[in-house]
Design a protein that fits this description.
Radius of gyration of chain B: 19 Å
Shape of chain B: globular
Order of helices and strands of chain B: HHHHHHHHHHH
Oligomer: heterodimer
Largest interface: A-B, 28 and 26 residues
Number of strands of chain B: 0
Helix content of chain A: 25-40%
Radius of gyration of chain A: 24 Å
Distance between the termini of chain A: 34 Å
Helix content of chain B: over 70%
Largest sheet of chain A: 6 strands, mixed
Shape of chain A: elongated
Number of helices of chain A: 11
Strand content of chain B: under 5%
Distance between the termini of chain B: 25 Å
Structural class of chain B: mainly alpha
Number of helices of chain B: 11
Structural class of chain A: alpha/beta
Order of helices and strands of chain A: EEEHEEHEHHHEHEHEEHEHEEHEH
Strand content of chain A: 25-35%
């Protein structure tokens, strides 16, 4: 449904995209991740035809993306970052205007506007000026305009940016629902959003594609959370948290103590973010677990529990995009 | 041309709905009418008394002021047309729709031109009715003058829209546009002090030569149509190139 081949874009001296290629199949929700300035928005602008690449080509819904051919632009719904809208217009009139620009007749416009208003659940605000709506509802209006004309592909650039947690959950559910029928390319900074909505993730950093695959598998191959429950020796009962954390961080592969809990009877429960060994296939085989065990028992503490608590997508993302500094 | 009509309707509706556009129109009409009745036209070679002082059944005074009134009025109508699209980010959405830059530019131009035409009617027709009630007004000259002013307004609008597409800030677009239209207007005043060869060129570039010396006096000259038509086409094509060019930024 989306084919990008060798996309290259330069802004002055800065190479924003360096020969990026990927394909997205019909009917999938793909997360598009990367640090600020990675090239995500540039890629999305190229795919929507608002920007012409300096090199490479792309095809959306069977149409080559080209300024002279509006074919691909008819099949793509786009929600740009910051959701630009004509705030003085009423919601229903704005949607009617966009449907008209897309070429719908009067009756088609009426039907289409009703459909997207229902889909985005903005019916009770349809008669209000867009500028009077909350940020969450404006995002929904932006999404509603992207859905007009029933496009095959939706390109959503940070659709939950600036929303409160309740609105984030609602928007996420909406995107998941839409993903059942449409091909969605979703850019976001919120990693949990990708884990919750996308079946595949494309990570871009420094203008280059650095990873492409299943987010869980990607995370599992990079980082994980290790839960350590231990009972301190009598002489260490007053030991400060920082000392215990330092002891655990001394094990090679431990990146961060994510959680520290003091329990009665000298019990301490810690959750560690640990780096996975490259190529390791199972969590059980991780040497870092052995190293942590050795540090704990070496101090004379009793190890009550040592277990893996799933994967850490955030750590995987940080590891994959670590060369951001190379660009600056 | 796909999308032209919806964009035209939106742009025209936005001006009707915007209090600022209505206030500017009201100021344009009231200032024009005040100048016509009380001040006359005391600028340049053509000095005319106000209507009450001159007692002449003609609209020459208001037509003499039209080019200068456009210097403030037209940029106020056009400044946001593209500059606001850029600053608000809606231009990006506009470019993502299956809408050509030419359709968008033409639609915005037509909306401004029509609005300006309505403003001209609101300003000039009441004057014509008053003068006609008091004396023997030549309605042929009035309609010819209105048509000439409408053409001149179209040329000014096209140039101003081009300048609006150059800027991100509305104020900058307004100032640049007012400055350019002001220079065009002032060129008519400078003709007398320029060397003959240069004076001729400046005269033909001036709105005076293509409005006040012809249509405003009830004389329709096809060369004026070419002059204004050329500016309109150049403005629309230039705006289209600027907007479409953003895809290559």
């Amino acid at each position: 449904m989306i084919h990008a081949h060798g996309l290259f874009k330069r802004y002055g001296e800065l190479v924003a995209l360096d020969h990026v290629s990927f394909d997205v199949e019909r009917g999938s929700v793909v997360g598009f991740l990367g640090p600020n300035g990675a090239g995500k928005s540039t890629t999305m602008k190229i795919l929507t035809g608002t920007l012409v690449p300096d090199g490479g080509s792309c095809e959306v819904a069977g149409h080559a993306v080209s300024p002279s051919d509006p074919g691909s632009r008819r099949r793509v719904g786009y929600l740009p970052e910051s959701t630009p809208l004509y705030t003085a217009m009423r919601v229903d009139r704005y949607l009617d205007f966009v449907a008209g620009v897309l070429g719908a007749s009067r009756t088609e416009r009426k039907r289409e506007v009703g459909r997207v208003i229902d889909a985005c659940r903005i019916g009770k605000h349809a008669g209000r000026p867009i500028g009077a709506l909350s940020k969450g509802y404006r995002q929904r209006v932006g999404l509603a305009q992207a859905l007009l004309g029933d496009p095959d592909v939706l390109i959503l650039d940070e659709p939950t940016s600036g929303l409160d947690p309740r609105e984030v959950v609602r928007m996420r559910a909406l995107v998941r629902e839409l993903g059942e029928e449409k091909t969605i390319l979703l850019s976001t900074h919120i990693l949990s959003e990708i884990e919750a909505t996308a079946s595949r993730v494309i990570i871009i950093a420094g203008g280059k594609l650095v990873a492409d695959g299943d987010p869980h598998a990607m995370a599992q191959s990079r980082a994980a959370r290790l839960v350590v429950v231990m009972r301190l020796g009598v002489e260490d009962l007053d030991l400060e948290r920082a000392h215990i954390e330092d002891e655990l961080m001394g094990a090679h592969g431990v990146q961060e103590v994510l959680h520290f809990e003091v329990k009665p009877g000298g019990i301490r429960r810690c959750v560690l973010r640990v780096e996975r060994a490259p190529g390791s296939e199972s969590l059980q085989g991780e040497p870092v677990a052995e190293l942590v065990t050795r540090r704990v028992t070496g101090r004379g503490w009793h190890l009550s529990e040592l277990s893996w608590d799933g994967v850490d997508f955030e750590a995987a993302f940080l590891a994959l995009t670590d060369f951001e500094g190379e660009r600056s | 041309m796909r999308g032209l009509l919806p964009v035209f309707r939106r742009e025209f509706g936005a001006r009707i709905d915007a209090p600022s556009a209505l206030v500017v129109t009201l100021v344009f009409a009231l200032v024009g009418q005040g100048l016509f009745f009380f001040l006359g036209h005391p600028i340049g070679d053509l000095r005319l008394p106000g209507f009450w002082a001159g007692q002449a059944a003609t609209l020459q005074v208001i037509f003499a002021w039209i080019p200068l009134l456009f210097v403030g009025f037209v940029p106020a109508l056009t400044m946001g047309a593209w500059a606001e699209e850029r600053s608000a980010g809606t231009e990006e959405l506009l470019l993502s729709w299956p809408l050509s830059g030419l359709a968008a530019s033409l639609a915005k131009f037509l909306a401004v031109w029509l609005f300006l035409g309505v403003a001209l009617l609101i300003t000039i027709l009441p004057l014509a009715f008053v003068v006609s009630g008091l004396g023997d007004l030549d309605w042929g000259v009035v309609w010819c003058g209105l048509f000439g002013a409408f053409l001149l307004g179209g040329a000014c609008s096209a140039v101003s829209l081009l300048l609006s597409a150059l800027f991100r800030e509305q104020l900058a677009a307004f100032l640049a546009s007012a400055l350019l239209l002001g220079l065009l207007w002032a060129s008519g005043l400078l003709v007398g002090s320029l060397p003959a060869s240069l004076a001729e060129i400046v005269f033909y570039a001036s709105p005076y030569a293509h409005f006040f010396d012809s249509a405003a006096r009830g004389v329709f000259d096809a060369r004026d149509l070419v002059y204004h038509g050329s500016l309109i086409v150049a403005g629309i094509v230039g705006t289209t190139l600027l907007v479409e060019g953003r895809r290559w930024r």
